[in-house]
Amino acid sequence: MSQWILGIDLGTVNSCVAVVKDGRAVMLSDDSRTTIPSCLAFQRGQEIVGHAAKRHGVTDPQNTISAAKRLLGHSFDSPEVQDALERTSYPIRPSPLGSVLIEVDGRELTPIQVSASILQRLREVAELALEEPATKAVISVPAHFTDVQRKATKLAGEYAGLEVLRLINEPTAAAFAYGYRKATDFKLAVYDLGGGTFDITVMTAEGDCFRVDATDGDSYLGGEDFDNAILEWLIEEFKSEHGHDPSGDESARGRLIEAAEKAKIELSELEETQIELPFITQLPDQSRPNFSRVLTRQKLSALTQPLIQRTLELCGNCLEAAGIISEDLDEVLLVGGQSRMVAVRDAVREFFGKEPRRDINPDEVVAMGAALFGYSLSADDFKLEEQAAAAEAYALARQDTAIARKLLNEVEKLRADSIDDDALAERLETLLEETEADGTSGRMDDIELEPPPDDELSGAVDSLRDELMQLRGKAGAVMSGISEELSDELADEITRNEQAEAPKDSTIDRAAQRLNERLESAVEASESARTHLEKADQHGSARKVKLTDVASHALGIASVSDLFTVLIDKNVPIPVAKERIFTTNQDNQTEVAIRVFQGVAERASENQFLGEFVLEGIPPAARMEPKIEVTFRIDEDGILSVQARDTRSGLKQGIRVEDPLQLQQPAGGEAEKEPSSPPAD
């Protein structure tokens, strides 16, 4: 029985994993490091993940994948992927259906497969630290992740052999970690600037209810963009000095990226840092110059000011959606490694008018919150498992105690009958045979093994432990007395007749050994029962928190004339289900295409396409006559499901779901088909 629920922060740059031990969230480390680079590489055909992969990327960037989270759930033609094409060292190409394939070491991998390898490594780290299997997890995702990105993340977890209990938004997890042990109500803003994504969330805690009021963000804005701002500055400085663009040299570009990240980190503590890159690249004249620059904190702030300003714009949108002003907030929590940047902290302080919290590790708080949430979800189940284990251990202890008591009583009775030693040995042999098996039979069939009710089990275990203490003392005295008597009789017999055989006292020794084994087994089982009961009490006292999140995007369908009809608004509490009636726009139309989008533009084609659902077999009728009921459902993971039903015929089995990114298969084609007409509103 494993009661570990992994809390996993699957990050763009770094990832980490936590569990709850003794009611508290603790980070699990890989060689004393709690964060693991989200990198996958291949070295001599072997897959490596984490720190080793990141080191490998310096010398072999083309076979090292980093920041795959930024590609997760995107089509190849999306602006995000097109931007990544200019920045990644590894080749990216479209799959037959337009999703993303990464080419490394002669292989084709999807971002889902890369994420699965990272999750598998996190699971290995956890199991090594816990010294037992761990297959259940709560995985965090950016609050602004789309439906397709959430499905992709969950699928990656399944590929890694994990049962994904829930997806939880990263800022929500951070707020949960902050407030789980607080006894007071509060309103909190979580500013989450990670390696690849930005989220801002406003949350309210009232008693045991945690409620997300509003969220906003950008799934393509994070520390990678800050690194790229420094990288572009370094490239321009080199071009200005040497008249040559070093970015065409993959090795030089890798060293520049590494130097940019290192300088950024150092400027969180220093006012300036020296960037030294000897023999950075080969110029047209075959020389290899050294390159050196000083980067100041002020210059870094200027380079990244547009990125910081973008986060503040989203913060303003979120406060407006929540219907509050910054003065209504009790705390502002900084989350994500990029939030360590001094210019970021200063901007957040100025925007919200209060000092942001810095006493929680921004790299670890999301994983800790995910672990705490998973534990909160499962604490009652853990309690029942521990109670069942305690009852089972108690039954074993009762059985061993009863058999030991029966054996001791029989030994005393036989000895009291004053029979000769041969007869005693023979009858003891018979008795031992009856008690050899773990079960009860013959003269043992009167033992009561039914455990008491759960509310009486603790007292019963304590009573049994007291009984065992007394029984062990009595057994020791009885068996010692018999052994001494046999020793005296043996000495007298030898004195009278040197040829006499020794009495069969080996049977007495065996009886004593068997009695001792039963008693020790009973003690061990009773101690196990007590331990399980203590754990059950601990799980029973865990705080049970109700968490309500919100939809991070407006969701709807395309109707006639490319109009976007919203069924679920942004920031609506989830889980949620919304229905709306549509109809046909042509006479005798026998099918309708339900094209699902997310976004805020009035024209559907200007929003993000999520998938198409086709309802076939509608009975022919005049236009506007059929009634097509479309239902959108968002579950607790923020994942969307859509159903269409013809209200007149009840037909709904004709729906077929076409995944535009083909999440279930990394590659493959599909036959072209005639497009279906959209419904009319």
Strand portion = 15-25%
* Alpha-carbon distance between the two ends: 53 Å
Structural class: alpha+beta
Summarize the main sheet.
6 strands, mixed
The CATH class of the largest domain is identified as: Alpha Beta
Number of domains: 4
From the alpha-carbon coordinates, what is the Rg to the nearest angstrom? Answer: 35 Å
CATH architecture of the largest domain: 2-Layer Sandwich
CATH topology (fold) name of the largest domain: Nucleotidyltransferase, domain 5
Discrete helix count: 13
Roughly what percent helix?
A: 40-55%
What is the number of beta strands? 28
Form type: globular
CATH superfamily of the largest domain: ATPase, nucleotide binding domain
Mean pLDDT: 84
Q: Which residue ranges are poorly predicted, with pLDDT under 50 across at least 5 consecutive positions?
A: 438-447, 653-658, 664-674
